Fold these 4 entries.
Entry 1:
Amino acid sequence: MTFDRDFSRYAPQIDFDMPELDELDLTLAEIRELSDDNLLKLLTGESDQGFISPPLLQAINHEYIRRQMEITSKTHWTILPTFIVACLAAVSSIVSLGISIYLLSHS
């Protein structure tokens, strides 16, 4: 609770004009067409295209995170060759074990 100069219970009325802000207006299709660098500039405030409303900021953030998840969810190129080498190693060890057992039983 604030008091004015006469100690009334009501706050003083202050009139001021809000500055005109250019508001950035993007559709979801336009957001998807932007590059990662442009999305990051919008998120960090480096872009001077205007005021970004919270819902638009959330949509931009969602698109940027979606792209990053696509990049990180791709498997590394070494996964398949490593699997193939491991299978070959397992098969060769089974074959060598079978040969060893066969040679020991016939000697």
Entry 2:
Amino acid sequence: MLLYLLFFAALIIGFVISTRRHFGSILPPYRADGQHGVLQVRRYPRLVVAEVRVSGNAQQALSTGSKLLNKYFREEQIARFALPLLAEKVDAADAIWTMAALLPMELSAAPAPRNKAIQLKELAPQRVFARHFHGSVADDDRLARQKAEMLPLVNDLCRRLECTKLSTVVVMHRYPWWFPSLFRVSDLMVRVTDDAA
């Protein structure tokens, strides 16, 4: 019995390691420009994304956005999950979110979505302050706590580096919705300017 349990545990560990390695390999590249406590200064290059606007709480937005973007990826035979997924709340009053999945191709080569709610676009190169979060941030209360902890640190670092915030906290979901929360890692990011503004 013990051998069966050890074998089963080894399979789970192997699956988790393999899955994390796979999804880690499709993260967008960036240049690290320094570490300030828990915050890392990153510079991302131009990125091509498929973006859709959805409404609801954080969990509903993640679920709806993932389904719509995964369907686009399947219909156009883009051979992977619609990940990583950038989730940004753009209207606090009406709980409107943009959900953007990174595309593994240039904008000119990306197939036009059949669903007109999905827009293809380029994100300009950007500078962000980022930190890792272990566990799920799909829950509204948990995300609110993370924002409350992170934004004062961002404000302080902006004063020291003489920059200005360009966004609220953007969540980069690295893994699909079914990946266990115990093993999830997300990137919490705030876009900032390069110079004093």
Entry 3:
Amino acid sequence: MDFDVVLGIDSASFSAGVDQLNKDPKSHDEFFKGEYEGNNAQGTWEVVDQSPAFEFRPPTADKWQGSIGPDGRHPTGDPPTDNVFLLSIPSLRLDATIGGQALPEVSPAVEFYARAVLDSGTASLTPLAIWADESQLSAAEKAIVNGIVLPQVFQKLSTVLSGHAVPPQKITFGGSTLELTLAAVLVTDSHLVVVATADTSTATTLPSAWPDQPVFAIVNHDFAQHLAASAAEAHKGVTLLDEQSSNAAASLSAKAVLNSVDDIAINQGDATSWSAALDVSFDVSASVLGAKCALKKSSDSL
């Protein structure tokens, strides 16, 4: 697989967005709480205490088979593992009334399973199933949780995650427009990794290992060289300075023009660090009490 740009984010950094949603009162009420009614039961549910957090691992076999899928049924077979991750909800508070009789409040742990997918250059998250720890629930509570509450929570969280689709991106750099197409979305043990290629014929083979920083970006050197050259060409002939000032005793004018940017070098250890030779022409003139002088410097590299 080839790349021009790779972006990576670890589970803690990815979870920060959900944490912000949960802590915002309006978003919390919209996505992390609700009411339910059906089968002679009614009540409320709400994410309480800790915010949900992402974990880059698939579900265990027993949790997968005990979960509820989009169709309201328990999945069968082995759990999916390719690009699958989970959103852990430490405590989902449930209030329930059955036939007018209030049940004791319960707060089971919940896990929401999803997969990162890539379709026609667009990355998105596909909801798979939702599971709740029912070890402390009565038979009546289990029926409410599986039949009413979990499907509703699944739909709410699906709305949150499905809104994070990333289509091909167009960026303007150095006066030219580049299109970045997503080539892969990978869920590793520690990071969600997005691989992109540009329409510049500069893509090269992926590195064998990722950085261990929480959030990272890798730019291949040929792509960085292309960006630098595009920026240099776009700034050719740009006036860097054009100033004039005067008073009764003196006047001063100064002009500097960037003729070219040459000998661009990309740092071998960091493709975001560049150096180059600037060819700048200067024209400075001054008049003091009527006497003029001028200084010119042209076509010399700095």
Entry 4:
Amino acid sequence: MTPLILRSKAIRQLVHLIIDGPTGYRGLKNLETLFHQLGYPIDLLLPESRIKYSTRVLMQVQEDRQLPRLLLELVQSSNSEQVQRQMQAAISDILLPYGFSLERERETAAFRMAPTAVPVPPPTPQELSVPLFQNLPLSEEEVALLEDRWNEAVALHHAGALRMTLLALSLILEHVLSAFLNQFFQQARSSRYAPHSSLPFRDWNLAALLDVAADKGWIRLKKDDLPYRVRYYREYVSPARELREAPLLNVNMVNQTWQQVRRALEDLQVASS
């Protein structure tokens, strides 16, 4: 199994879960006891805040490859079944962007860390073929440009450029949705998910466009069906956020995104006919 290495955002989330979560390690002595059970000496405790102390020791725990053990200790530290389920769900939410979850084995009731990735078959030649953009409410210039961009996305996919493939697909889907909503302006504005602003559709982010299109029944794809980094692709154009958060990125994600984007475009073709 690939070693689990959390970045700064996940470390902060884990610190707050330890301090203020259901298990309630709200005192320095309690925190000290927790970390001491993992083999870290009591003299680590210095006159510092719970947050600084927990962050410092967590970084050392991670460096020592003891993070999975700590997470299991956290979820099992309560005898309450309800608290254990709450901790399991909270920890899994933190681990999800890294491709892991905290699962409970049915036979033994023991907790274990496991990869969340489910193999997704690569896109078929049909899924990679250029969609019928001419059947959408687009100008001839838009159709030509989107066909060109789609072919570029396919080339990026074959080259194994995962980040740029996702970026290309996000941009294509966002433009088509924006044009579609502009064609059906009144219906789109009447959606309960329409942002409360007078911004034109081209200034809405992809998540908002997906919400409205799904709400009006134009696409089956829901916002949460797409990975966060696809919905909010602008945040990952710069390496800064990726360095800070290490969001999940793998072939399965790209393969699934091809299928989802293709299905959404076909749904829009049907809705516009």
